[in-house]
Design a protein that fits this description.
- Two copies of one chain form a homodimer.
- The first copy, chain A, is mainly alpha-helical.
- The first copy, chain A, has a three-stranded antiparallel β-sheet with strand order 1-3-2.
- Chain A is extended, with a radius of gyration of 22 Å.
- Chain A starts with 8 loop residues before the first helix and ends with a helix.
- At the A-B interface, helix 1, helix 5, helix 6, helix 7 and helix 8 of A face helix 1, helix 5, helix 6, helix 7 and helix 8 of B.
- Chain A binds a DNA duplex through helix 4 and strand 3.
DNA sequence: CTTAGATTTCAGTCTTTCCTGAAATTAACG
DNA sequence: CGTTAATTTCAGGAAAGACTGAAATCTAAG
């Protein structure tokens, strides 16, 4: 028998808030609440306990945990002599943020980048679309390419470096002046 | 009579793509499609033309335009001797991006920041919640405060400075080493 | 003040997404 | 293998969200 995590008022409040924000974050309420519980829980939890804590169907937990795994926010562990799956969330908040940003870029930006590339190719043989509009698309493509390229560079900088840069705040501006 | 904008295959493709991405971007399809049309159109458009171009109800256009205005992505202009509202989208892609980021921060981050501040206050008189969990919340609060503070600083840097910094890419790292 | 075009509101309907519970599948153990 | 616990799948129902069209409201001009 596991210690499922005691639902104190504070924890409950957070779980409910996560759930309410779910819509804005583009995920379902269950997924958000499960993530809240796992993020806060010091110990990994089993699916049954999560269902119990949140009062949702066991199957729902299963599906939601799958989604959290595709987001790379939750992973499975095991306990010796217990064949049930134990789930744990990334605890490092920096890690959580960058993971979410990576995923969002992949889902929200990359497909549009691809569309714009396709349109740029088509533009050559397209004599219907006004130049002005083609240019706007080209500008957007160029901008997104530059932006994502920059993101990749920053993303790959070692964390201590990034931290130092961030702590400099707008004083980094002096570098370029 | 306005020139409503000719729906060339390229434009149609973009409009459809915007519409398909809508779900991932956290807005409705109509809103996304209307934004696509307005973003591409060299001229401001009236609501009726938008409804016609996209084949959606006039009332839907009205509501969606309101939402685009709350996002600060669309504004109203007028034409002399015509009392209809003409709608135009921000055309500067950099502007569009920062506007969206600002709004998203306001909707997706700020409420959680507030919750964490409230929880931090409560934590003092809360003897039920394990220290470990309170600490995790405190860490998250600290992180978000630092992150948003940094965002505000960068956000207020003049655009040319930001551009230069971006173009330096990961070479800015040398500054701190 | 009246009229007519323009816009918005909103109740009802449609669509999509989410969730449940039963049944099917998987996997460990004897 | 057969048994049993654990997990997943999925059809159907529930909830949430989006869209329509008619009616109400607004606004400019006569």
């Amino acid at each position: 028998m596991t210690t499922p995590l005691k639902m104190t008022p504070t924890i409950q409040r957070c779980v409910l808030h996560w759930g309410e924000m779910a819509g804005r974050w583009g995920i379902s309420r269950s997924v958000a609440q499960i993530h809240a519980v796992l993020f806060l829980s010091p110990e990994p939890l089993i699916a049954d306990d999560i269902a119990g804590l949140l009062g949702i169907a066991r199957s729902n937990v299963s599906v939601s945990l799958k989604e959290l795994q595709t987001w790379d926010l939750v992973s499975i562990t095991h306990v010796l002599g217990d064949r049930r799956d134990y789930f744990q969330a990334r605890k490092d908040i920096w890690d959580v943020l960058t993971t979410i940003m990576d995923q969002r870029k992949r889902r929200e930006i990359d497909p549009t980048l691809q569309l714009l590339r396709d349109c740029a190719v088509d533009a050559k043989r397209d004599h219907e679309t006004p130049e002005q509009i083609k240019e706007r698309l080209a500008t957007m493509l160029e901008f997104l390419e530059e932006m994502t390229g920059w993101y990749d560079q920053v993303r790959n900088m070692p964390r201590p470096t990034l931290l130092k840069l961030m702590r400099m705040g707008n004083r980094v501006a002096k570098v370029v002046s």
